[in-house]
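Escalation from tier 1.

The customer reports that the assembly of two entities below gives different structure tokens on two consecutive runs. Tier 1 could not reproduce it. I'm attaching the input and our single run for tier 2 to review.
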Amino acid sequence: MTEEVKPPKREKIPRQKMPEQEPKVRARNFQEVPFGLSPELAQKEAERCIQCKDPRCKQGCPVEIDVPRFIKEIKEGDFEAAIRTLWEMNALPAICGRVCPQEIQCEGLCVIGKKEEPVAIGNLERFAADYQRLHGRDILPPKADPTGKKVAVVGAGPAGLTVAGDLILKGHEVTVFEALHAPGGVLLYGIPEFRLPKEIVAHECHYLERLGVKILVNQVVGRTDTVDELFEQGFDAVFLAVGAGLPVFLNVPGENLIGIYSANEYLTRANLMKAYAFPEYDTPLVKGKNVATFGAGNVSMDSARTALRMGADHSYIIYRRSEAEMPARAAEIHHAHEEGVEFMLLSAPTRFLGDEEGRVKAVECLRMELGEPDASGRRRPVPLEGSEFIVDIDLAVISIGAGANPLLTKTTPGLALNKWGYIIADPKTGKTMKPKVWAGGDIVTGSATVILAMGAGRLSANSIHDFLTMGW
Amino acid sequence: MFEIVERQEMAQGTVVSNWVKAPKIAKKAKPGQFVILRANEKGERIPLTMADTDPAKGLINIIYQVVGKSTALFKTLKVGDGYLDVIGPLGQPTHLDKVGKVVCVGGGTGVAVVHPITRGLKQVGNQVFAVIGARNKDLLILEDQMRAASHELMVCTDDGSYGHHGFVTDMLKKVLTEHQDIALAVCIGPVPMMKFCCKMTKEFGVKTLVSLNPIMVDGTGMCGCCRVTVGGKRKFACVDGPEFDGHETDFEELTARLKGYLDLEKVSYDEFKAAHGSGKCSCCS
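Tier 1 run:
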């Protein structure tokens, strides 16, 4: 009788920590928080992956990256193979490795994560992309033969860039129309330098240009050209990915005082216009000593952390619910805590107070308690009568979400919009009600994440490719 | 790059006119619309209402007053140089309807903005009275153009060095008094001027358009920096405007918000003036 040989027990390797800047130090500079993994750390982390036959991590990825394969390639030290694997499904790995909510996607489904910490898939993706950017050979993925079809992509954010990357590889001609003076969309104007260095965004866009994508900046489609004019110019299909670029305000008295910004404005000045480097860069930004950010999403954390780096003594997050309901990623909240952001929870602003010059000097808030769950499933905040209190501030950032910017949709007849002004598109294909027009990203779903926009881009790219090769 | 093909200094060098190559924008632009310009990689995004266009040649005309670092930097750009970015046409065009008798008032650099609107209102068949003003004769711009664009032009200077000695509101009052059937006033210039013009036209019950110039960043309705209160409602000048009903506009709030960066603007401008001409600035190297 032969004795059954048991496979050798896997040596337990703890999840490799990515070195990062000390909280006290980084809270005062705009350099990226984590330094990234070294090849040694990355290979060690890659060893933790058990190469599941039916990998759940892949199912958790909106763009279906072959996660076990690229991790195996890192483990074997073949970093070029790893980037090629990533590029098959994702044109923007350096960005996704940094800003995807892996804990609810790939890493959230990782089998290792059932008993210990999941494999650091995001950090490994980031490593492979960074290694290629800094040390890799000048390589590109293979492209299909030219089809002679032309696609216009409106908006150079995550959804638009994904469509551009997918369709250029399938042999179509792709032109991206960007309204701002540089491509990247929210990756550029919204997410701060310390979370996503702009050099990396530029590098990923340049990668697409090397593949043959034409990126035209300063093109406000709806004004400079309309969608119908793009068809007249010979485009065979149009993908709309203009984002949810409409600021939402609190609608409380005093909101137009000087020193009160929408998060869009605050972050655009700081990131796109590099106001943190004023006066070397020309765009100014009020440097608050006591800053209040209203809202508790990822954008709110970005704003509050930016305020610290701009020199604030106190950077408050004022939020009407409790920590449990905060929509931001746990990692972002953790970073904000570490850096000294102060959380004023269960507090809602009722009005802003100004000085004689019209500058904000304080905000009046009401204390709240949590009542029954509302339509969102979260417990509804109920104001406590007579609980008003005043917080002295000299800068406020309103970060309670974004709406649908009507500039494009109003000038594009034939689109169907929902009651909030977002474009109605088939969730499986991205097809809109207007022939030959697809849409995806925040202008369809409302504010969501980079990777969900990219996932929508992927579906639309597939549908556009089917149309260009087989018909509508 | 968006090349400057023609350049002219006006008002003793305090105002500069550029004709800029921007064929797509020139083809599309209508009176009342604006562009956003950026001189270089480190530059601010500056909104300027187009003073004129030449679609056949693919040119747009911008006229700006030098008031700070960014416009001083613009002034260093010569023919053959260009702007790194020009975005547009942005904003809502003026409704150029035939309403009968209209009066168009321009003050300072506002004359450049009111000029194409004046011409447009005349072209659609209105009888157009125009009033322009400046602090003194040397600072007056576009007199000949405004004379051609209107049926009757009145010129004012604050110091009496040319034309009527006094403010544009004096002449506005005269026109409104002599012509009780004026159906529309368009008043564009410094905020105090627009405010006082609106006060007057309100007394006469004449509908009045103003063109607002709040601070902007993106110009496409994304940031909310240019919010103004009109009729008690929040409006974005970049997408809802820049023209609004002057009788409904909260000028006090606009005035305050325009001063939001005065201290920082001074830092930037002082640094520019110190470096400029000393060989340290990018424009001299």
